[in-house]
């Protein structure tokens, strides 16, 4: 423990990361919760984004349906997860409410409406914050929140590497939208980890410093365990990259700590073990062959949470990424042993992964490590490097032996949508994309941490540095951190050419619109500075920045429309209605045939109606 000292109190800071994957409520205590949202086509983009981000913060796994037929079909099938919470938005909410209540796993059904005319009962929610407060209260009711947080960790310490918990991500493209905002949570997580694998294999780092950082983390985790600390000290003294595979098979901290870091899906945790991860990957590259193995079926046995099994079942035919190194065996009986079919564990199911290899593996280093293992040939182990991609062929339950069988086939080629995205990425853009994925997953703090870490790199261009500061500022504004936003926007302004323009933008949740562009233009930066100044009640300064943004030349009519709308709403807030109407009218003209036109027109009509009423 270290102690921080504030003005009148001190507080402990635990150096050990005790909360892997902490973005989801109660995620470390119960992984048996499923969130579902059905909404009709009348839901606006802003509402869709807000509800989606709340879902991703609240549930590890969430499903969103905009088609009633698909929603009904999903509910009609067998649901593996024990606790299901359903939100319904749209005209048919009351009818669907009664259908959903009949599901035995349904713990809560909530009507949420954004259009007052569609509210069908007094219990309907129109405030998203109050809705999710109620959902979180209900989750607490149906979850054993007294479960010991060390339970899973203790199990990991006893676990064989062939039965270690897995971190999985699924990609299931809808084939219609390329923007991240339309991707499901599981697809975003898949893409995030595939991005991370590319960054880790290319990043340059100091070998000595990275080894020291890894060893420090191991010592902190095993503080009080004399036996493990002795092994760690010996590892520090005699560490050799050439022995990376042998270390992985030893009964010591490395394979457990690396697996734990990967399961956290946190870049900072994974980055601490970059030295060993890259060394193990490198040794697998040396041992790997590009020929089809003699045995085309491999196995892995494990007890999986019902939530993970639900994700696999829901995504048959989709791609799955193993977020870490994958140990498999040629010995099916050994895998069945590790599946523990005769051991009951609440909320878990015994699963056999049957993995098929039908072509030469060229995209992921793998090797038969039996000859390099501390245990020799007894385990017949084939080890795959991190980020291997498979297709989910089927998920079948056998009533004879209470085992689930998940059949996977190795994939050398990614989905065409993914392949195109990766092909277009430069190394710098990979950093920016990963941060954007974290943002879309509602992991704002992690996105900011990641951007700040990248800013420490010495070889970044001014464009990239400007974009990083701009992205951080955009998150600051959403999180109501307006002074921090101004600091980052000022840094971005210094690095941005004054005439730079762009055509990509996105609105934020506030009444005044701010832009969250792919690459920031001077207009975007100045506009967002105006929004931040307005939020801290410096309206005159805000107006100055809006006018500067408006004066920037360029053909991007949408960003100009946003600035006009912001000026109009600022004038309206100050009671200058004619000036407000003038700028709001300009915004509507500039946004013709754009999805933002209804928002701008609503502002214009509201002010126009108010002016008409005051004149009569």
UniProtKB/TrEMBL annotation:
<dbReference type="InterPro" id="IPR011990">
    <property type="entry name" value="TPR-like_helical_dom_sf"/>
</dbReference>
<keyword id="KW-0802">TPR repeat</keyword>
<feature type="repeat" description="TPR">
    <location>
        <begin position="561"/>
        <end position="594"/>
    </location>
</feature>
<dbReference type="Pfam" id="PF13424">
    <property type="entry name" value="TPR_12"/>
</dbReference>
<protein>
    <submittedName>
        <fullName>Uncharacterized protein</fullName>
    </submittedName>
</protein>
<feature type="repeat" description="TPR">
    <location>
        <begin position="523"/>
        <end position="556"/>
    </location>
</feature>
<dbReference type="InterPro" id="IPR019734">
    <property type="entry name" value="TPR_rpt"/>
</dbReference>
């Amino acid at each position: 423990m270290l102690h921080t000292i504030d003005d009148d109190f001190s507080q402990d800071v635990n150096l050990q990361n005790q909360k892997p994957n902490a973005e989801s409520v109660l995620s470390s205590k119960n992984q048996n919760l499923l969130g579902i949202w059905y909404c009709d086509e009348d839901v606006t983009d802003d509402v869709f984004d807000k509800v989606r981000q709340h879902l991703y913060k609240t549930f590890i796994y969430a499903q969103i349906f905009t088609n009633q037929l698909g929603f009904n079909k999903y509910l009609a099938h067998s649901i593996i997860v024990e606790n299901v919470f359903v939100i319904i938005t749209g005209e048919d909410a009351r009818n669907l409410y009664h259908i959903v209540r009949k599901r035995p796993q349904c713990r809560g059904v909530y009507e949420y409406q954004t259009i007052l005319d569609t509210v069908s009962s007094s219990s309907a929610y129109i405030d998203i914050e109050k809705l999710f407060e109620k959902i979180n209260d209900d989750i607490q009711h149906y979850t054993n929140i007294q479960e010991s947080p060390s339970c899973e960790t203790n199990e990991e310490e006893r676990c064989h590497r062939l039965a270690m918990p897995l971190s999985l991500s699924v990609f299931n493209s809808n084939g219609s939208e390329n923007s991240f905002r339309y991707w499901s949570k599981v697809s975003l997580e898949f893409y995030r980890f595939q991005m991370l694998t590319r960054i880790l294999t290319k990043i340059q780092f100091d070998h000595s410093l990275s080894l020291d950082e890894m060893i420090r983390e191991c010592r902190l985790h095993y503080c009080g365990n004399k036996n493990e600390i002795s092994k760690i000290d010996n590892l520090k003294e005699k560490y050799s990259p050439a022995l990376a595979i042998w270390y992985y098979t030893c009964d010591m901290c490395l394979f457990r700590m690396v697996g734990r870091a990967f399961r956290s899906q946190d870049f900072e945790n994974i980055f601490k073990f970059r030295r060993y991860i890259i060394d193990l990957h490198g040794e697998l590259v040396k041992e790997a062959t590009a020929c089809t193995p003699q045995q085309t079926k491999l196995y892995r046995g494990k007890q999986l949470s019902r939530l993970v099994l639900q994700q696999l079942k829901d995504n048959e035919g989709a791609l799955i990424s193993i977020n870490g190194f994958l140990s498999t065996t040629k010995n099916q009986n050994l895998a069945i042993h590790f599946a523990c079919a005769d051991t009951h564990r609440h909320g878990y199911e015994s699963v056999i992964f049957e993995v098929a290899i039908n072509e030469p593996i060229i995209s992921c280093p793998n090797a038969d490590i039996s000859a390099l293992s501390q245990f020799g040939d007894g385990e017949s182990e084939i080890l795959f490097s991190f980020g291997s991609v498979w297709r989910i062929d089927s998920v079948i339950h056998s009533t004879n032996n209470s085992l689930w069988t998940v059949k996977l086939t190795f994939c050398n080629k990614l989905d065409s949508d993914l392949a195109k995205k990766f092909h277009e990425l430069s190394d710098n853009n990979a950093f920016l994309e990963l941060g954007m994925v974290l943002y879309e997953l509602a992991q704002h703090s992690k996105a900011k941490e990641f951007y700040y870490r990248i800013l420490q790199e010495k070889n970044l261009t001014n464009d990239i540095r400007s974009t990083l500061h701009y992205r951080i500022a955009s998150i600051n504004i959403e999180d109501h951190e307006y002074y921090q936003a101004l600091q980052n926007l000022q840094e971005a302004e210094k690095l941005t050419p004054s005439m730079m323009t762009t055509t990509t933008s996105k609105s934020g949740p506030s009444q005044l619109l701010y832009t969250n562009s792919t690459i920031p233009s001077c207009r975007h930066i100045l506009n967002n500075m105006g929004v931040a100044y307005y939020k801290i009640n410096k309206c005159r300064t805000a107006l100055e920045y809006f006018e500067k943004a408006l004066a920037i030349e360029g053909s991007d009519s949408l960003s100009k429309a946003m600035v006009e709308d912001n000026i109009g709403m600022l004038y309206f807030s100050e009671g200058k209605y004619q000036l407000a109407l003038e700028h709001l009218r300009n915004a509507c003209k500039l946004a013709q045939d754009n999805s933002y036109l209804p928002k701008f027109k609503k502002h214009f009509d509201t002010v126009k109606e108010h002016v008409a009423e005051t004149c009569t």
